[in-house]
Write a structure and sequence with these properties.
two-stranded antiparallel ribbon, Arc Repressor Mutant, subunit A, 2 strands, mainly alpha, about 110 residues
Length: about 110
C-alpha cells in the first residue's frame, strides 16, 4: 500500500509563478501571511478582518516595522491595498453572508 497521496496535476502554473515572482519583489512575510489568511478562510475574509489578522501577527508587524516603532503597532491599510492592486487579478470580491469578502479567483491557488 502506498502511503503518499498523489495530488491532481496543476494544468496552468503561470498564475502561481506570477505570485511567486511577486513574493520575491515584495515583503515575503507580509504577502505570504496575508495570502495564507485568505486561503485558510472558509469563504473569504473581509478587508477589515484581514487588517486585524495582520495587526495581530507579531511576525508581520516585526517585519513591517523593523526600522521604526510606531506609537500604535497596527497594520497599515495602504500595504494591503498595494498587495491587492498588484495581484488583484487572482483575487475576487464576492458576497458571503451578505458581506463582501476577498477570496481566490481560482480553486487552483487553494490546492497548491
Amino acid at each position: 500500500m502506498c502511503l503518499t497521496t498523489i495530488r491532481p496535476q496543476v494544468v496552468n502554473v503561470s498564475p502561481i509563478l506570477d505570485i511567486l515572482r511577486f513574493l520575491n519583489f515584495s515583503g515575503k512575510i507580509l504577502v505570504s501571511h496575508a495570502l495564507g489568511y485568505i486561503t485558510a478562510s472558509r469563504s473569504g475574509v473581509t478587508e477589515p478582518e484581514l487588517e486585524d489578522l495582520l495587526s495581530l501577527d507579531d511576525t508581520v508587524l516585526n517585519d513591517v516595522y523593523q526600522f521604526w516603532t510606531p506609537p500604535i503597532r497596527r497594520m497599515l491599510p495602504a500595504l494591503w491595498f498595494r498587495i491587492h492592486a498588484d495581484i488583484g487579478d487572482y483575487l475576487i470580491q464576492r458576497g458571503a453572508n451578505g458581506v463582501p469578502v476577498v477570496y481566490w479567483y481560482h480553486r487552483q491557488f487553494i490546492e497548491v
